[in-house]
Structure formats: structure tokens, C-alpha cells
What we know:
Two copies of one chain form a homodimer.
Chain A: H1 3-10, H2 14-23, E1 30-33, E2 36-38, H3 41-54, H4 61-72, H5 78-87, H6 104-113, H7 122-136, H8 143-162, H9 168-205
Antiparallel strand pairs in A: 1-2
Helix pairs in contact in A: 1-2, 4-5, 4-9, 5-9, 6-7
The structure holds a DNA duplex.
Amino acid sequence: MRISALAAEAGLPVATVKFYLREGLLHAGTATSATQAAYDESHLRRLRLVRALLGPVGLSVQQAHAVLQLVDDPGDDLYATLGRAVSALPPAAAERGDASDPFPRARAALAALGQVYDPDFPAVAQLEGALAAAESAGMPISAERLAHYGRALSDVAEFDLARMPDEPHAAVEYTVLGTALYEPVLTALRRLAHQDAAVRRLRGAG
Amino acid sequence: MRISALAAEAGLPVATVKFYLREGLLHAGTATSATQAAYDESHLRRLRLVRALLGPVGLSVQQAHAVLQLVDDPGDDLYATLGRAVSALPPAAAERGDASDPFPRARAALAALGQVYDPDFPAVAQLEGALAAAESAGMPISAERLAHYGRALSDVAEFDLARMPDEPHAAVEYTVLGTALYEPVLTALRRLAHQDAAVRRLRGAG
DNA sequence: ATGATTGGATAGTGTTACTCTCCAATATTA
DNA sequence: TAATATTGGAGAGTAACACTATCCAATCAT
Lengths: 206, 206
């Protein structure tokens, strides 16, 4: 398969495929001569993944590159790799404040939930940022709400973890792509559940 | 309070505050002369909200404008206003396909969950887009997983709905800002719950 | 043999979210 | 009151981003 066929199958302009090659989002084809290379199914699959990450998931090219690199070759330390990979995904995290207690809101929240607090895990900074944003926007999150949310999402996490593959490479792919691809599903489902509940409530009232 | 004081309190350059005024994200101050205007607490609160929407929540200026306009004056139809407001938030939705069945994946998913399917509600298109992205990236979402996620988020929705104010204006503000500000909290909590579950699992194994 | 296509490089485009500069009118300070 | 600073408003400029277009000599297809 040459580049024009690849681009056509993926539904992209050739120029865009070349751009992804240059940016390292897509591995090069096998050269068959000085001015020709062959592409296969793996390139097509990768292109579809790239499009999903750049489009619906909303990653930048840089973020997608970071994520794909970790999926392609995860290091020895599975735990650290997962942390790094997930930190490449939006939303943006808070900067760490006071050195002795960099993420006070997140620390308190996790303590209340009875969960591990590790300031080096990037999602902690994300939680801090999200809590701080809600607070500064005048809609702070109550402990009660946090507890409720935490319970619901622990439930989701248990489900996901139970289905995580054992083999490290597959585990990283599952975790990273699962986070990137399934989070939008979760937010859409939340909104729809809201709508559903609202409709039932209006019906009951009307 | 003049513009320089307002900007200083909000921690923003004066030029940026002027930019928000131009873009309609911030209401004008009350003019005290041809070249002076006074700003008050309401402007400061609004600036904090705008920063939260543009920063951690990740809205574009356009999206933030749309959201704020609906919060500022919601129409008569509460249900339609909420739909419109939430549709202004990311992630991007799928385009509707075949006219007779524009969102097949979302329709099937909602049927399985026993929830209302209304193709005009924008979150349906978001769900379709997210499901399609996962599928085309090679990680389709099983019915089992969807059911599990749906249950967990219905739980979240029930909690939120029970706390929704009765007065229409307040209800729109609660729903829209709640969605914008609390969704990042939910995704952060999901990631942390994963980490927590993973740590416990590694500990158990090691 | 001849026209089209390729990989590779470089430059250009449209969008977004600011940021800078300028202005005459007004405030503040000396 | 004179000198200096700041204001609201408008327009142009900028940096990052994700492509997109153009060009080239080498090669392929017919």
C-alpha cells in the first residue's frame, strides 16, 4: 500500500499523513526504493487511533505523541509509566503550591475518601486544579458531594481494573487508551443521566 | 474600582480584562465620565468564573460566551435552555449520520440502559462520537461496560438532581456551571480511583 | 518515452487567545 | 495650576497550533 492509498483508506489528505509521519505520530513505511515506501494494516490502525486522539478525545499533537510513545514502549516500572501516560492527558493540572503541602484540597479529599495520597501522581494535581477552579468560580464542592462522586467512581475503577490485562505492554495500552477513549463516554453518560433524571422529574411535577 | 485595580485583584493584565470586555465575557462597568468607569464585586466574581471556564474547564472564548449568555438570561423553556447550554461544552459531538437513525450506537446504548433517547439532545451526539471514536481506535466498549458505567453515573445524576434549585435562573446556573466545573473533578477522581485500585492490587500481588 | 506519483523538505494559511500600541480625555499629584 | 499618569476604546501585532500547499528530483506505470 502506498501513501496515497493509505490516506484514501483513512479518509485523510496525503499532506496530513505526511505531517503525522514528520511529527512521529505514525511510524515510517518500509522503503522499497529511494522514493517509495510500503504501508500496511498497522499504519491504517494507527491512523485511526491518532484521529481518535486528536479529534474526540481532544489531545494536541504533542500530547498524542507523548501518549503513543508510552504505549509503544512502556518502561520497566509499570506504575510510573501509567502515571506519566495519564498525566499527558487533559485537563490541565494545578501547579504545586507550598512545598510542605502542595495540594491541600486534593489531600483532604483523598483522606476523606480513604484513598492513597501521593503528590507525585499527576491526577492529584488535576484534582487540586479542578477543586480550586470550582471554588474560585464560586461553586465549591461539598464534602458530601465529593464522597458521593468518589464512591461512584471507585465502582467504575474496580470494574476497569478487573478487566486489565496481565501482560505489561497490554496493560499500559489498556489503561492509557481506556482513559483517553472512555472518559468522553463517561462525561456523555453523566449528561444523559442528568437529562433522564430531569425529564422524569419534570414529568412527575407537570 | 477602576480597571487597573480590578485587573490587579483578579491577577490578570489590564489588556486581558479589556479583551474580555470586548468579547462580551465581562459586563461593562458604570461610566463615571467619558474616559472612566467603575467596576465592583460582580465584575471580580465574573472574572474568576471566566478564568475557571477558560482554564481548567478548557472552554474556548466562544464556548464560554455561549455558556455565560445562557446563564445570564435563560429562556422560558428550562429544558431546552439546559440542553443548549450543556451542548456548548466540550467534548465535540459527532455529526448526525443517516437521517432515519442518526446516532445508532448511542440509541442502542440508551435503550440498553433504559433511558430516554432524544436525538435532539446534544449529549446524544457526544455519546455517539465517543463510542465511535473508541470503536474506530480499536477499543470498542462492551455492553457490559456501558451498563456498569451507566449505573454509576445515574447514581451521580440522582445526587446532583436532588440538589438542583427550584428557581429557573438558579437551576440553569447550577446545571451549566456544575457540568462545566464538576466534570473535571469526576475525571480526576476516576483516575485516582484507578490508581488506588492499582496500588492495592500490586500490593496484594507483591 | 512520457506523464503521474512518491518521499522529503520548506514555506504558507487560518484560527485562537491574547498582547501591544496609540489616542484624546480625564485624574492625580506637585 | 502645571506636570504627570491613567483611562476607555480601537486597531494592529504576536505566538502557538494543526494543518495545507508547493516544490523537487527520483522513480513508477503505461
